[in-house]
Design goal:
Layout (H helix, E strand, L loop, with lengths): L1 E2 L9 E4 L11 E2 L5 E2 L4 H12 L3 E5 L5 H10 L2 E3 L5 H11 L7 E4 L6 H6 L2 E4 L5 H6 L2 E2 L8 H14 L2
């Protein structure tokens, strides 16, 4: 894990990209055109632990696919799909809900996440993120997308809160 800055305090919101964060960025396509992805169950427990702490979270995805909604529903997270302008959506969401950007974490892995990472106060990336994303990230977790990256962030946040 590589950290450039300390976590926001207070922390009011975590926004996650889906593909490449909750998944390994691969999609399995069947001959009938249906798609599936692989997610790590450890991430789900991490999300639950943060929810128990009262931390708000949601998924912001450029992809529009029932698999994203199904996983979000399973995790009890709100989801915004089909978002081509993540930075614009996030900025509007924060303004509408009166959330200070400095209190927000955004976790993403690819170039389409850069704008949202810059809108939020703190940017996080999985270890296998695009090199440009790795440069921008305030925290790079050791795990790769779909292999416990979300869980690692969740545990890092919980551990940091206990030491404060």
């Amino acid at each position: 894990m590589s950290q450039k800055r300390t976590l926001p305090d207070p922390l009011t919101l975590i926004v996650f990209d889906f593909d490449g964060v909750f998944t390994d960025n691969k999609v399995y396509t069947a001959q009938d055109g249906s798609e599936s992805v692989m997610c790590d169950r450890r991430d789900g427990l991490g999300v639950r632990m943060l929810k128990d702490e009262g931390i708000e979270m949601f998924i912001l995805s450029m992809e529009t696919n029932p698999v994203v909604e199904a996983r979000a529903r399973k995790l009890g997270l709100a989801v915004q799909q089909g978002c081509d302008d993540k930075a614009g959506f996030l900025a509007g969401y924060l303004q509408e809900h009166g959330i200070e950007p400095a209190t927000v974490i955004y976790m993403g892995n690819d170039l389409n996440d850069l704008g949202a990472m810059k809108v939020s106060g703190y940017a996080v990336a999985p270890a296998d993120a695009h090199p440009t994303v790795l440069e921008v990230a305030d925290l790079v977790v050791a795990a790769t997308g779909g292999n416990g990256a979300v869980r690692e962030l969740c545990e890092f946040i919980l551990k940091s809160r206990k030491t404060q």
